[in-house]
Amino acid sequence: MKVFEANITNPAIDFFDNSNELLLETLNSELKSICGINSFFTTQLEIDALTTAILSKKNLIGETDRAEYGDFQTNKQLSDAVCKLLMKQYISPEVIIEPTCGQGNFIISCLNTFEDIKFIYGIEVYKPYVWEAKFAILDYFLNNTKDNIPEINIYHFNVFDFNFNEIYNKHKNHKILIIGNPPWVTNSKLSSLGSDNLPTKSNFKKHSGFDAITGKGNFDIAEYISIKLLSIFSKLNGNFAFLVKNSVVKNILLEQKKIKYRMSNIQQFNIDAKKEFSVSVKACLFLCSLNKDPDLTINEHDFYTTALIRKYGWVNEKFVANVELYLKTRNIDGNFPFTWRQGIKHDASKIMELETLNGHLINNNKEVVEIEEELVFGLLKSSDLKGRVIDSSRKYTIVTQKKIGQETKYIKIQYPKTYNYLFDNIEYFNKRKSSIYKRKPAFSIFGIGDYSFKPYKVAIAGMYKTTVFSLIKPDKNGKPIMLDDTCYFVGFDTQIEAEITRVILNKKITQNFIQSIAFKDAKRMMTKELLMRIDLNEIINHTSYAELDAQIDNINIEDWIYYKSQLIKKKFEKNQQLTLFVEQAQPNNTIPNAGLVQN
Asked: Could you give the 3-state DSSP secondary structure of residue 471?
């Protein structure tokens, strides 16, 4: 049955039903001696309400579905398995801290696994779960006789406001275990749901204004809680064990280079979140030892077999996805000679993206579109890029500008049909939420520039797990084909330059390097920052003309010599720019270090 919106077990019902004394102080004292919980009840009214509910034998209210708040309660089988894994790691805590204890499954599993527990602290913001945790602990001790009953405190509190320093000061000489399953949701998602269970608004990662605007200021609640607790407790002896999304672990390790939390033996045990929580997300048990010299790498395992998958993290100043593979290919880690670009972003696919049907253009609203052809270009998405040579597209897009911020009034004069179509659908532009469109000309797009109109492109999908590069050629009418913002590309004026670049990027040595620095569990596996680390000048030192001749039709040795000379020129120009930047950055009253940059 339910009481206080919380499940209560039959043994707990029987205990309260058979209690001779139901006064606050006396009952709390009895409960403390049985299960160790301090202040089981806070008022006499709570006791009276409980006994009334038991007498009526009715469920008072159904449980709120809290999955939308990132609240995925840990099932007992998983919490038991986590504690069993910790025990195999020779972890034997004296103090258990669970900052979001929910219904209490982790606390019960800890009680059932570890023999030296002296204190338990559980914090939970949702009051029905506070009661469920208390009832579960009482039920455990009613069914299990223990010689050692720890002191247990279950707090109804917002974890973001809770004072953990009191626990820190009290247990400086104890072995602690911080364990739990904090919410798998972002701060912006909770805000959109109207939740007040949020940290005080702050840019806790110190992002720049632009990064905060474009989404980097958004963060996982679990990441915030993890960093808060590591900041407080990493100087005490013990361990940290959280169920979190893989992205949270990676972000913490990224910060570790700068912050250097006193944590070592960092391990990630990947779980099947679909099986355990019925959610499609990459998640794991994040485990580390506290109060040790900081580690900068992490060993990734399978949770169910404990088999090692890889080691990732920092190698000197580089953050890599596979340390072993990176050490074999790190000579390629440098600077790409050209600039990788993202494709077009418009956030109005219903009217800006078109297909052909029976010789007519059709928009995503299934409407026939009659406009001039001049501003219509072929469009490729990540799903279209599969390492092929492409000279046609299944989709088209309207390109309203040749560079970002260009005035669009010309469309009304030169292309009246296109203007009328766009204006008739202006509501799609007006409801675009991104701040990048504010105070910009009508029908503005992003990811557009001279590079977009290059006839030949080498491109790769950003949203897929493939690392193979495609060659994009002009369509049958000689028009350049565009890519959307899920793709990255480099533009070329000649086909031979594009073909050579594609072959070099698809070489095994290049592919191994990309695999060593690309995180497959990231939402966007490929990024501009990653691609700009590929040093073509280094790769061409391991490339022969014979390799190219076997894969490219009509190539001659002069093409290869010219290509290499252009790469060397690009490298020289970048070095010159770096030298100029360093010289300009020197204070006026100092002499530049002549040995800092050498050409």
From this structure: strand
pLDDT in tens, 504-524: 999 999 999 999 999 988 888
Give the span between the Cα atoms of 584 and 563, in whole angstroms. Answer: 32
How far apart CA 480 and CA 454 sit, in angstroms, is 7
What is the spatial order of strands in the sheet that 263-271 belongs to? 151-156, 119-124, 95-98, 176-180, 238-245, 283-290, 263-271, 297-302, 308-315, 318-320
Angle, helix 10-18 to helix 44-56, in steps of 10 degrees: 110
Mark 337-348 as b/e (b = at least 16 C-beta within 10 Å). Answer: bbebbbbbbbbb
Token pair belonging to 597: 């940059």
Q: What does the DSSP assignment read for 275-302?
A: HHHS--S-EEEEEEEESSPPP-EEEEEE
Amino acid at 259: I
Q: CA-CA distance, 597 to 599, in Å (whole number)? A: 7
Q: Position of tokens 């010689």? A: 147
* Helix 127-143 vs helix 10-18: crossing angle, to nearest 10: 80
Burial bucket for residue 154 (CB in 10 Å: 0-12, 13-18, 19+)? buried
Q: Distance (Å, rounded) from C-alpha 539 to C-alpha 525?
A: 22
Closest to 120 in 3D by CA, of 177, 41, 73: 177
The first and second tokens of residue 207, run together, are 């992002």
Tally of CB atoms within 10 A around 177: 25
Give the range among 11-20, 129-138, 312-321, 390-399 with minimum mean pLDDT: 11-20
Look up residue 23 and give its amino acid.
L
3-class secondary structure, 369: strand
Q: How many C-beta atoms surround the C-beta of residue 358 within 10 A?
A: 6
Q: What is the mean pLDDT of residues 280-305?
A: 96
Q: What is the pLDDT of residue 522?
A: 82
Q: Collapse the DSSP code of 467 into the 3-class scheme (helix H, G, I; strand E, B; otherwise coil) and give the result.
A: coil
Supply the pTM of this predicted model: 0.78
Q: How far is CA 33 from the centre of its chain?
A: 45
Nearest-angstrom CA–CA distance, 392 and 383: 14
Close Cβ partners of 409 (under 8 Å, ≥ 6 residues apart): 441
249-269: burial string, b at 16+ Cβ within 10 Å, e else: bbbbbeebeeeebbbeebbbb
Q: What is the DSSP string of 390-431?
A: E---SEEEE---SSTT---THHHHH-HHHHHHHHHTHHHHHT
